[in-house]
Amino acid sequence: MASADSTAGVDWAVLEAAAVAAMKNAYAPYSKFPVGAAALTADGRIVSGCNVENASYGLTLCAECALVGNLHMTGGGLLRAFYCVDARGNVLMPCGRCRQLLYEFRAPGMELMTTQGIKTMDQVLPDAFGPQHLEEPGDTNHE
Ligand code: THU
Which residue stretches of the chain are H helix? Predict the structure, then answer.
């Protein structure tokens, strides 16, 4: 029986297609490495984003940055399932910074398609720092 935080019923093929479509909008003239990301929200929306580079190189916006912006621009909420692709449509692991972005907006039990199959947010960002650590400033015993 599916629990409230289960991602059972997630249509991963729909997410893959949305990620591929997003990737086609990428602006990646410097790396020539287009990326697309898509996610299913807890209330059933699909949000997506592509990477957007600029001449500074270092200030590049990953696809996940656009995705979380899209999440908030379309009603906010939390993410249930996530899929990221490269130019060939192959699954791409989110970079370290983007794992943190995704962690902030994870729904309980959020899952990601990875190069090793479906994993939970906690598996791809173990022992994460998050909003819970800001609740009691000065308390070093963060359980
Ligand atoms: N990139 C993303 O968009 N997301 C990731 O999680 C990994 C990297 C982009 C940033 C840059 O435009 C290109 O891929 C090469 O690093």
Answer: 12-23, 63-73, 96-104, 121-124
Measuring CA to CA, which residue among 113, 114, 108, 112 is closest to residue 130?
Answer: 108
Q: What is the pTM of this model?
A: 0.91
Contact 107, 7 (CB under 8 A): no
Pairwise CA distance, residues 72 & 2, whole Å: 27
Minimum-distance ligand 1 atom for the alpha carbon of 28: 12
pLDDT tens digits, one per residue of 37-59 = 999 999 999 999 999 999 999 99
The rounded distance, in Å, linking the Cα atoms of 125 and 105 is 13
Residue ranges lining ligand 1, Cβ < 6 Å:
28, 31, 33, 35, 51, 53, 60, 62-64, 94-95, 98
